[in-house]
Amino acid sequence: MSRKLLLVILFLDIILTLNSVASQNNGKYYYQNAVYREDIKSVQLYREGNELSNPVFELGSDVKLVLKFDDLTDDVKQYSYTIIHCDANWNESFIRQNEYISGFTDNPVTDYAMSFNTTVKFVNYQLRIPNEECSPKYSGNYALVVFEDNNRENLVLIQRFFVVEPLVRIEGLVKKATFDPYNGDNQEVDFKIHTEKLRLLNPREDIQVVLMQNRRWDNAILDLKPNYIRENMLDYDYNKENVFPGGNEFRYFDVRTTKYTGENVQEIKFFRPVYHATLFPDAIRSNKKYFSYKEMNGNFVVESQDRVTDYDTECDYIFVHFFLPLESRLVGGTVNVFGALTGWNANKTNEMKWNFVTAGYELSLLLKQGYYNYQYVYVPEGAKKADSVNLEGTHFVTENEYQIFAYYHDLASRYDRLVGFLTLNSIIK
Questions:
Q1: What residue ranges in 137-255 does DSSP mark as E strands?
Q2: What CATH number belongs to 27-164?
Q3: SS3 helix, strand, coil % of the chain, rounded to 5?
Q4: 70, 124, 312 from 111: Cα distances, Å
Q5: Which of 104, 106, 189 lies closest to 148 in space, CA to CA?
Q6: Residue 155: pLDDT above 90?
Q7: Could you give the residue range(s) of every CATH 2.60.40 domain in the chain?
Q8: Which helix (H) or strand (E) holds 75?
Q9: pLDDT at residue 300 above 50?
Q10: For a Cys staple, 47 with which of 53, 68, 129, 136, CB 3.0–4.6 Å?
């Protein structure tokens, strides 16, 4: 083997090693929500006491985040975790870990329990953060990274969370889009940021804003600049730049028990060794009238209607079968089941397959007992954004939740500080 070829192989090995820790963006480590193993299921990260909450807490508060996940290998593993501070674009910050962490950088996941009386055996792992061993000292974006055998390259999962130091006040509203060529079905998010506590030398650059709909990252608006700058106030009152499709309410199904069929479940049967729940065939909603009902904006909760004492270890796993009939196969892209149940990602793990015999798209997902929201999305080949409008329809009266994050970085800062956060609801009178 020539020396030149050996150097090329070594270089490729280095690149593959770096990419195993996190995806790269212009040479920087980029962290996103991801699960790296098929046996890891039911990943949740939320504020303790509210499964449906966003993983956000104020710096120095008593609030804790709870991470839960199941390992279906039925074998206790030596899992560890660390937290990585990131900039507003989720690239790793150029500050040392021991500077922004109080405690130890790497810690074992010691809270685990075996499943009990379930057909699918698993180990449930839990972690609460901040804790005595690891607590963030700076505000900003953080990636919670779980890995195995004290090897950070042996990745298990990554989950994003946020630490806020409330130095600005955000106020805003959601309304029907002012300028809307798409039949009046879009929602506009106007807001103001009050900056009395900050010294802004360059307001258009010192403050960076991220605007999200229902916690989705694929269609988040990342590059908004203030439309008007007034004394101690930045105004983001746009007509087009801050607009989202209203979309439709999420579909839902109930698999909290295996003893009878829940909402939108056609049948549930046991085929050794696992229960199977077949949902009623769905229908395209793009040409249908809007129907209002209460849902969870794409989230899910792990629950059981059976006599159990611990949802985490006694809720069973069920194969849930989805079916979306269509007149013909869609070309140039994929159809995916989308929502928190798929980690808000559209990839091979939730891509539906076309069945020529039944004339429709099919998918089976192994899910824990609970109550789930979901949608069908179309993802054009090579696109990063999932499109729900063509399959689900869109209406300006749809109830959506919006998140606004405000980051501060001036010339003296060495990292992006998260100085404001606001959640808005789109219920339009």
A1: 140-148, 151-164, 169-176, 186-194, 207-213, 228-230, 233-236, 243-245, 251-255
A2: 2.60.40
A3: 10, 45, 45
A4: 12, 8, 12
A5: 106
A6: yes
A7: 27-164, 169-246+398-425
A8: none
A9: yes
A10: 53
Omega cis (within 30) before 226: no
Identity at 354, one-letter amino acid code = W
- What is the pLDDT, as a whole number, of residue 18? 32
pLDDT at 183: 64
pTM score above 0.70: yes
The alpha carbon of 153 is separated from its chain's Cα centroid by a whole number of angstroms, namely 22
pLDDT band at residue 25 under the 50/70/90 scheme: low
Quote the CA–CA distance of 126 and 28 in Å, as a whole number: 30
Contact call for residues 298 and 374 (beta carbons, < 8 A): yes
**β 151-164/56-58 pair status:** parallel
Alpha carbon 321 to chain centroid, angstroms? 22
Question: Domain 169-246+398-425 belongs to what architecture?
Answer: Sandwich (2.60)
Q: Is 92 helix (H, G, I), strand (E, B) or coil?
A: strand
